[in-house]
Amino acid sequence: MLHDFGDRDLAATVAGRDDHPWIRRLYLNDAVHLDLTALAPLRNLRELSVNRAKSVLPRLADQPALESVSIDADQVDLDLLAGRPSLWALRLSGVTGPVSTGPLRTLPALTRLELAGLDVVDIEQVAELPALRVLALDWDQWQRLRAANAVPPGLAAARLDGNTSLATAVDWATWLSQACSARPPQLSALTGTVYADRG
Questions:
Q1: 145-159 tens-digit pLDDT
Q2: How far apart are CA 154 and CA 194, in angstroms?
């Protein structure tokens, strides 16, 4: 775990370590700008978490074992994640501009996806992700899927993130169970605040 990374040189930091073969999980916290090409020596990296960064270039072509990526950053170039055959879990948060699911559709193993709080311009396209089983979105994003009748066909678990009323949460759960009537997903968690309507 690298705390308060700031504007340090990631390549120099990685080069200065002698434990490359044993690093399976890496947390980079509070960085300014990160070009993840610098992680190329970490060939056995399986899980990467970037927290509270300003900008991230997720060039990760040299990590054949990488399965899980979590990025919390103001700016992320998602095109650089395209085509990763082993990536099955992706969490994005904090991105201030519009995000497209286009690069995500090139991830054949993508099973778990978390996009709550982001401006996803084509959120309806998540229904086209063939391996998707777990999806975490906010209320507005779920509503857009509902309006488009676009629910991932293999959905096994779903999460509603953010603040919502109890009635709204029940409505969401009822709709999703009906939309996936052949095999309803597990609706085991609400995150944020659930409050009772007072009217």
A1: 999 999 998 898 899
A2: 27
180: tokens are 């996936």
Residue 132: Cβ within 10 Å count: 21
Exposed/middle/buried for residue 96 (C-beta within 10 Å: 0-12, 13-18, 19+): exposed
For residue 88, how many other CB atoms are within 10 A of its CB?
A: 21
pTM across the whole model: 0.89
Report the C-alpha gap between 87 and 188 in whole angstroms: 24
Displacement of CA 160 from its chain's centroid (Å): 14
Enter the tokens of residue 136. Answer: 């975490």
Per-residue pLDDT of 123-143, as tens digits, reads: 999 999 999 999 999 999 999
SS3 label, residue 195: strand
Which residue, among 170, 71, 39, has the nearest Cα to 190 in the 3D structure?
Answer: 170
